[in-house]
Amino acid sequence: MLKELDPLLHSQLRLGVMSILMSVESAEFTFLKEKTNSTAGNLSVQLDKLSEAGYITIEKSFNGKKPLTTCRINRKGMKAFEDYVNALKDYIKK
Q: Which segments of the protein form a coiled coil according to its record (predicted)?
């Protein structure tokens, strides 16, 4: 029996964000926007969804007078991502 793929991670943009966050300690909003080729509005909505699911933490601060948004994946997010990748591997093997 194949495991169900996490619908939250099945979105291309959210999966891209999670993939990036798995490989770095943290990432600024502008870095994620550039790496995923997304619009600020769409990225913001998708980050909120990941945050609401408890997969990432979002820290808002200022760099001088400029707002700074930093994202980090947390344990729950790492487990969800690993489970997703393992489920994909199962699909490939079948």
A: none
For residue 68, what is the enclosing H or E element?
Answer: strand 66-73
Q: Is the pLDDT of residue 77 over 70?
A: yes
Q: 75-93 vs 12-22: helix axis angle to the nearest 10? A: 120
CA-nearest of 21, 7, 6, 23 to 86 is: 6
- The proportion of the chain whose per-residue pLDDT surpasses 90, expressed as a percent, equals 85
Residue 62, H or E segment: strand 56-63
pTM: 0.91
CA pair distance 58, 27, nearest whole angstrom = 10
Question: Which residues touch 12 (CB under 8 Å, ≥6 apart)?
Answer: none
For the chain, which domains are there? 12-93 (1.10.10.10)
